[in-house]
UniProtKB/TrEMBL annotation, chains A, B:
Pfam families: PHM7_cyt (PF14703), RSN1_7TM (PF02714), RSN1_TM (PF13967). It is found in: Membrane. It is a multi-pass membrane protein. Keywords: Calcium, Ion channel, Ion transport, Membrane, Transmembrane, Transmembrane helix, Transport. Residues 373-645 form the CSC1/OSCA1-like 7TM region domain. Residues 200-362 form the CSC1/OSCA1-like cytosolic domain. This is Uncharacterized protein. GO terms for biological process: monoatomic ion transmembrane transport. Residues 7-179 form the CSC1/OSCA1-like N-terminal transmembrane domain. The chain crosses the membrane at residues 12-30, 102-124, 158-177, 375-399, 419-440, 467-486, 574-604, 630-647. Belongs to the CSC1 (TC 1.A.17) family. It comes from Cinchona calisaya. It comes from the Eukaryota.
Amino acid sequence: MATVEDIGVSAAFNILVAFAFLLAFALLRIQPINDRVYFPKWYITGKRSSPRHADGDFVGKFVNLNFKTYLTFLNWMPQALKMSEAQIIEHAGLDSAVFLRIYLLGLKIFVPMAVAALMVLIPVNVSHGTLFSLNKDLVASNIDKLSISNVRSKSIKFFFHILMQYLFTFWTFYLLYKEYDRVASMRLRFLASQDRRAEQFTVLVRNIPHVSSYSTSDSVESFFKKNHPEHYLCHQVVYDANKFEKLVQERNRLQNWLDYNQLKFERHPEKKPTRKNGFLGLCGEIVDSVDFYKQQIKELDKKLTMERQKILKDPMSIMSAAFVSFSSRWGAAVCAQTQQSKNPTMWLTNWAPEPRDIYWKNLAIPFFSLTIRRFMISVAVFALVFFYMIPIAFVQSLANLEGLEKVAPFLRPVIELKFIKSFLQGFLPGLALKIFLLILPRILMIMSKVEGYVAISILERKTSAKYYYFMLVNVFLGSIITGTAFQQLHAFLHQSPAQIPRTIGVSIPMKATFFITYIMVDGWAGVASEILRLKPLIIFHLKNMFIIKTERDREMAMDPGSVDFPETLPSLQLYFLLGLVYAVVTPILLPFVSVFFAFAYFVYRHQIINVYNQQYESAGAFWPHVHGRIIGSLLISHLLLMGLLSTKKAAKSTPFLFVLPILTIAFHKYCKNRFEPAFRNYPLEEAMDKDTEEQSSESDVNLKPLLADAYLHPIFHSFEEAKLIEFRINKSQAHILSRLGNCSFSPSHDVHHQKEEPSDNVHHYEYELPGNVYQYESEVSNNVHRNDIESP
Amino acid sequence: MATVEDIGVSAAFNILVAFAFLLAFALLRIQPINDRVYFPKWYITGKRSSPRHADGDFVGKFVNLNFKTYLTFLNWMPQALKMSEAQIIEHAGLDSAVFLRIYLLGLKIFVPMAVAALMVLIPVNVSHGTLFSLNKDLVASNIDKLSISNVRSKSIKFFFHILMQYLFTFWTFYLLYKEYDRVASMRLRFLASQDRRAEQFTVLVRNIPHVSSYSTSDSVESFFKKNHPEHYLCHQVVYDANKFEKLVQERNRLQNWLDYNQLKFERHPEKKPTRKNGFLGLCGEIVDSVDFYKQQIKELDKKLTMERQKILKDPMSIMSAAFVSFSSRWGAAVCAQTQQSKNPTMWLTNWAPEPRDIYWKNLAIPFFSLTIRRFMISVAVFALVFFYMIPIAFVQSLANLEGLEKVAPFLRPVIELKFIKSFLQGFLPGLALKIFLLILPRILMIMSKVEGYVAISILERKTSAKYYYFMLVNVFLGSIITGTAFQQLHAFLHQSPAQIPRTIGVSIPMKATFFITYIMVDGWAGVASEILRLKPLIIFHLKNMFIIKTERDREMAMDPGSVDFPETLPSLQLYFLLGLVYAVVTPILLPFVSVFFAFAYFVYRHQIINVYNQQYESAGAFWPHVHGRIIGSLLISHLLLMGLLSTKKAAKSTPFLFVLPILTIAFHKYCKNRFEPAFRNYPLEEAMDKDTEEQSSESDVNLKPLLADAYLHPIFHSFEEAKLIEFRINKSQAHILSRLGNCSFSPSHDVHHQKEEPSDNVHHYEYELPGNVYQYESEVSNNVHRNDIESP
């Protein structure tokens, strides 16, 4: 058992680590050479194109020689606070702004709670405690003397604890309600203030039934023309382009090599770049590199053209999904919220996600398969959550010093040193857990993808939910039960339902020290390492040295990706759980949680302003989940306090505590009804307002150019030229007036166009739309990045 | 413990009772005097106006003198089968047809199951059983020798039981799927084939926000004109008319007395009917009755006019709800399925129920109150379900013969008679339960009304759900646990979750005899008493003798009401539960269940054709509940078999059984996604088809007359004359073309109209729309009937 001194040592150590990280960050961030690692957002928004502090001379390009800037090395903190919320929304989107509000909410909940609890509960717990009179060996730790464990059984003092629990619960209700209200109205205001965007007019239709004599495109058209005659505008079918995608990636690679060699040739015109034409450039004849890659690209383009024609011609490559666009937001809102077909598994309509948010591979999964997939994955998640406990318990039993000494007796002399013992006891269990948790998000993301969600934002939310359940069972419950005794696990499964809260309730105060160290290791030091960005820094410089050939490569290497919601949200929610559970039991934990929220708020504000670049905008769609989990934490805290007090023989108090979960559920239901629809539906009133406003400001709104290719698979963009798109729009507009009424990438006439002008066509495939390529590439790299690189 | 002989006696007794009831029914139904009790449906549909067998002479009017008809006294059974399903739908509505399908489903499930189980499981259970070798005193009953209890622990024979459980589960899946599919398509076809009806174009809007400067009517109009400009047609606000309703009832009573006296005077013109004008006609001056009632009605009409004007003028009497009608089914379908306002608790839209289905009193409950009401009621239902157990257990412990002898030792000589003992043991426990259950539906219906549902059909479904949960806990679980030992209840609450299915599983085979007698008492005899209609028969004749004064009174006394869904559906579902649970455990129960389903099918088919008159048509909306509860029964049966086998130490079988509940949940999820939307939404495709068809057949559809007063509170109809309505329609049509566009009972000009022609107005209030009055009266009496009269 850790004592107060252990906590002190651990706190000192973690504060030191955090400060070291902050200092390192302060020094590294002002070096011009690191500018692209610590301020990539400014490069991406185009407000900066070269390092800020770069002086004229050669050395100044890499190292900051202006020593004045070293003196003000902590000035990032006030800088991070300068931007107002409205500016952050404009700069980084609503998701980021709402994300920061979670930290603020944590502060608002826990700082007043900490003050109240320390002023009222600590004196109540300390005075005339039971634990002072006990033998020193039996007393778990000094921390316990400040906790509810120190109050005698049947004491009248529990009245204070119950009163405080009521106060804290109502305080949390008040803040949650205010916050939900605010976030919901922020979301509606944000959606209302958005410019005209393709997703406002578009609905994703899935499970289009296959009628043998019609093509998918034709049946979509006739169905929506019939059932939404006044609002249907056009549609875009979804192609199965997985093979094509691979070819495009290969072409991008070759294009990159070509650019590199051309650049090399421009800089040193005296030396023509050459390479061998054999396997991996290691054997074969020596040839001119530029010519070689040009030749290769030409061959690949031919393949691409053929593959593209095959996709467009072959009805098998058209998936049973389509993006249907409407002439008004009202029409799209109606279609997204209603049931279309008599068979409710056909013609399923949902709001289309933003084009950049779509996870294309999942668009074609049929309905029946979805049901089965989700069911299988929920069984798998259950297994993962519950059987992952065993390795964690094993590692923690090792991290227990007595266990470690038994396993490795030769370490005893080292461990027995007082300082090292304190250090290990404070640090090891938290660290072991943390390492375990790092490899997990990848698996969970894959699981979510198997479940078949079609938007990256939804995938991230689902992953985050799975991760939270994992943490709840394994970090929270697992630490409480296996930490004290692994044997309890078995007992736990064979107990009566009424017994479970009691078992956990009793263990809760004993584990306070563990969770305090956990908050320091995972929270404090973790957040400090977040701002240092050590891994991206190293990777960027390594890439800069070995891989980066062109400016485009540098941009890709610099790309910071989005805030990692699947990992940060669940751990954030775990801190809410810890704070709420321990608020009454061991109030000394609250200042630690509050410090975490404050520090993390600064750090993430800085990161969102300077580093991260959101890949999608869900307009705060994750808020209902955050809200729901804080409510869940409240319920858990009520249940555990009930269990704890029942072991303290304060049976008369149970009826008072029984009211709290009922109130909490009622509050949750009310909030759900009141606010959640704002996150699911787009109200018709809003849609109509926006339509009317737009019609009055612009007399003749032409939506076609906006919708033309918004929902075309991004790889088709990558080697189209702007002209071709325009040509297609014009052509399809003429077309709409005739029979088809389809603003999409229409297979038939497109193929025809290619046949007429084959020479023109080859020309189109030259690399002329870097923006589009970049967009796509960044999406892919974002996924790869999250799944493969960030984990150790 | 009941033996096979007890069961035999009980069966014989119940069969005798059932036959006695059937014989009585056969004799009573052919008496002309009872014709209105046993064939009211034919009077209501207008196909019969006087008794069928009534001969010319005086006696023949009351007693059937045609002795030939006595010889074929069982011919109601083939008669009941003559009507085809399509004819039943036309004759009695889809609800009734779907209701009958539940009995057929029961037969389809249990008859093949019974055959298979008796052929396979009974030989397996009987051969080499453990129970033969035991002491006679310890053996519970001979029935047990046919059950799974007779199989030795760890026997390989359990393989047969698991195999049969799989077979039975898949058989049930197959039938459930087919049936859900069929009912869903029947529902869609029924809705598609319906004539134009007000509810197809109308949406119920609740929680209309109050804007101080606008009236509710104006704000409804402006809101829907703005947000559904192409589809909004008109609306009808809802008035708070509870006081008015009482006056109308009083007026109807007086009108009835007037009719009676006028009739009397016509028949005996020589004797003028008189009465005293004082208290209850017992004191005061003697006056001419006709004049007296005419005078009274005149006075009441003045009051009514004033009250009516007050309601129409006073903005406080307009509730925050309205019925909004659209010019097409498509428009209404869109409005019903979408979110209207930014604030999701305002402007809530749902399909309007049929006018006759509306429960007017609940229309004005605000949203916030609804959340709280539902929450409170769910707590109350929980309390009722779980604490009602105590009196039942008490009564059952009395019904236990040993207990009874202890409580009343003087009864011992009577009880110890072998025949009476068998009778009591077989009959008493079931009877005690039945009496308990009879007073319950009233309470549950009141609870559902407090919850604030706005349609009678929903109220009945919710009551039926509550009743089912009650039966599940108290009849099923309660009998199993308290029946064997009341002490187990306490133990049950203090057991581990894994232990509960084992505890119940062990008791299950022991309670088979109890449930067999229950099926005979509640099922066989209960259904036979259903066809006899003893209570309605007695009440009708009593009313006929003492109360009935006019033809209208006779019609009211004859009114059979609807099939009592809140009581019949849950008990039906309980039989499914019993059948599925005992199919493998004690297969001898299956024939009893099958006989019940067959017998009940005949009886209810006869009753639906000849007796009941549905008060509303929900197009089979209760089917998802029936399906869901059969799935629930399957899950319970799997769980209990698992528990039972684990006590039989057939531990290796558990993995096989574990798959079943998972499959069942997956099947349920699939069915829910596949079929349930057909019961909740009206697909746009369907709406558009219907609209188009109608437009092509009738070039100029005028919906105004249809929608004009469809959703006016029925009491306002009761003293309007047809002319006045027409006048209003014409006037409001003119009106619509001008500013208001409102086809409703518009307060302003109606009041105006009354002021202009006061003399004309009094004339209007004369009783001229008996149909409407009748309709309303029957609705009220239906409620009263269900709640007050039918319970003992």
